[in-house]
Structures are given as structure tokens and as C-alpha cells.
Amino acid sequence: MEEGPYKCVRDGNGTVNRVIRMGTRKSQLARIQTDYVAEKLKTLYPDVHLEIGEKTIHSLSLSQFSSREKSLFTKELENALERNEVDLVVHSLKDLPTTLPNGFTIGAVLQRESPHDAVVLHPKNSGLTLDTLPDGSVIGTSSLRRAAQLKKRFPHLEFKDIRGNLNTRLKKLDEKEDYAAIILAAAGLKRMGWEARVSQVLGPEDCMYAVGQGALAVEVRARDCDILEMVSTLHHSETVLRCIAERAFLRRLEGGCSVPVAVNTEVKDSVLSLTGAVYSLDGADSLKEAMEISVDPGNKLESAADIQHVGVTAHNVPQCAQVAAEKLGVDLADLLLSKGAMEILTTARKLNDAR
Ligand code: DPM
């Protein structure tokens, strides 16, 4: 067996192949997302041996790895990355902070699924919409962003927290009478194979989406050039640029994953447009603005090579376009800040902490 920093296996022909170990969380969605990325890598690199926790793709099995698989959360997964126990971790991009801990980077942002939110109705309400649900109907969501926008837009509805993973939430909806409907990301529902439960997809006029929603991200060690190069082929340029702009916007607003901040992005004819908004908890107060920038590779903005943009490393996406995308996010946030966004967010944060 080959010595060196990486674990390798020899195949039947005596060729030495690197083993890539993928960490995953236990939830069904996390597994599905990890498997999806594994399949892509397997197609692109048929010679690489992939391991997912205890599960093995290809021929190799490593028993000592399985015991560590238990329940790794984002932090634990990063610890496992740091300790060289795994080489890459798949996340929903929207769950990754805009500033990653030192030593980590997002090495791939895959083509985005629908970034929109969707309504899942209690079966007894089949055929209804948020508009036509009776007065006082209770909608389940723990997202401040969704609640703020929908409270304003549909004042006849009530909103209550709902917790747990997707399986738990759907069970709580169907098997009890607590909620008339719940709101979930269309992308997660699709990955779980539950598209048939989507009764309504919410467009930007009803509910703008969360930063990074619908995109998968592959987190790796920033110094691990081999793995970085390997996963970089998974990058989807347009998604990368949209998500850099969105993450730069959220970072500048000092927003975490639980602030009422929403976005909408689009790339058309090499122009990236970003709409961003902040809301008070009841949606009564809000600020919304839009800006755009050219991401044409011919549009030379000063760029430094080898730098991360809001945590993303993408050598194979034009640097100047990434610089432009980040600038767009920062500029739009600054515009909102100049109009009082920080006050709205600070109040929302305080009220939410006091809940
Ligand atoms: C974050 C939020 C939620 C998740 C907040 C938000 C939703 C929480 C809730 C940051 N992460 O969206 O405003 O509804 O109470 C999450 C989901 C997915 C990734 C599930 C969902 C799947 C979709 C994707 C939870 N994180 O939002 O329905 O990959 O974007």
C-alpha cells in the first residue's frame, strides 16, 4: 500500500487508488444529499474509491470507520474533516454560515434545485391555497423569514413553530390537527421524493427564499488541493455566482441563518441581479432593494487569484465574475443598511431571543 497523507487501495490490476471518505449526518435528507454527490463523483472519477460513513460505494469496506458515523452534526463533521477522518462533507448551502471556521472551504456548489418555498397542506385541505385557507388557519414554520413575509401577505393566517427533520414535520402535519399546512423548501421535498405533496410553490411576490436555498455545497479542508481540484468539477458557475452574491449580502448584514433576510437572484445575458430584503418579525416593517452587475468574464474587475469568496473556492469560475458577485452582495447590503436595515434586524433579533 502507498505511503503518504492519503489512504489508498490497490485494485485488481495493482493500480493504487485514493480513497475518498465522505462524512454524513444521519437524517434521511443528509443521506440522500451525500449519496447524490457520491454518484456524481463516481461518474466523474470511476477509479476513486468512495466511502460514506459505514456505507461503502465500490468494493472497499472499512470497519473502524463505521463506529464514528453515529450522529455527526455540522460541527462534528468539521472536526472529523480537521482530524483527517473524512475528506469531504455535503451540506445544504443554506445551513452553512457565511464565515466558515479557519481551514475549511466550500469546494463545490452544485447546480441549484428550485430555490423556492412550497406549501404542503394537511390532506383535509386538499385543493386550497394560502389565499383560500379559512381565517385563523395555522401554518407551521420555524423560519422567521417565511413567517415575516407570509404574515404580511396573508393576514388571515396564523403561524406556529414546527420543529424536527422533514420526516418528523410531515408526520406532525398529517397525523395531527395542529396545522392546516406547513412551509418547506421545494428542493428538500424534491430530494426526499415528496414532490407530490407540494400544493403551491411560492414565487418572490409571496415569499423570497433564503440565502443559498436549494443548492448543495461540498465542504473540504482548504489546504487539501487534491480534493479541492477533484470536487471543483462539481461547481455550477451560475449557481456559484448567485450564491456568492447572496452570501456576501447576508454576511454584510451580519445575518446568521436565523434572521428574517430573504433574497432572489437571477443571471441573464451575463447580468447577475440580486433582490434582497430584511423584515421585522411580523413583516410590518421591511426594506427591499434590487441591484445588478455584469458577470461577463470580459468585464475585468481587479481580482486576486486563489482567494475564497464568502467561503467558496472556485478556481474554475472566472475570478472577475466572482469578485463582481461578491461586490453586488456587499453593495446591496450597504444600500439597505443606509436605509435602516440594521435597526430592523436588531429589533427582530432581540424580540426573537426573548421569545
Ligand atoms: C435554515 C432555515 C431552515 C433550514 C431558515 C429559513 C428552515 C427552518 C424551518 C437556515 N435552514 O429557511 O428561513 O422551516 O423551520 C433546511 C431545509 C433544507 C436545508 C429544510 C427547509 C432543505 C432545502 C435546501 C432547514 N436546510 O427549509 O424546508 O437544501 O435548501
TrEMBL record:
Domain Porphobilinogen deaminase C-terminal: 241-295
Top-level EC class as recorded in UniProt: transferase
SUPFAM superfamilies the record matches: Periplasmic binding protein-like II, Porphobilinogen deaminase (hydroxymethylbilane synthase), C-terminal domain
This enzyme's EC code(s): 2.5.1.61
Residues covered by the Porphobilinogen deaminase N-terminal domain: 20-227
InterPro entries attached to this UniProt entry: HemC (IPR000860), Porphobilin_deaminase_cofac_BS (IPR022419), Porphobilin_deaminase_N (IPR022417), Porphobilinogen_deaminase_C (IPR022418), Porphobilinogen_deaminase_C_sf (IPR036803)
Domain of life: Eukaryota
TM annotation in the entry: none
Cofactors that this protein relies on: dipyrromethane
MF terms in GO: hydroxymethylbilane synthase activity
GO cellular component: cytoplasm
GO biological process, one term: protoporphyrinogen IX biosynthetic process
Protein's pathway: Porphyrin-containing compound metabolism; protoporphyrin-IX biosynthesis; coproporphyrinogen-III from 5-aminolevulinate: step 2/4
Pfam families associated with the record: Porphobil_deam, Porphobil_deamC
Keyword annotations: Porphyrin biosynthesis, Transferase
Protein family: Belongs to the HMBS family.
UniProt protein name: hydroxymethylbilane synthase
Record lineage: Eukaryota, Metazoa, Chordata, Craniata, Vertebrata
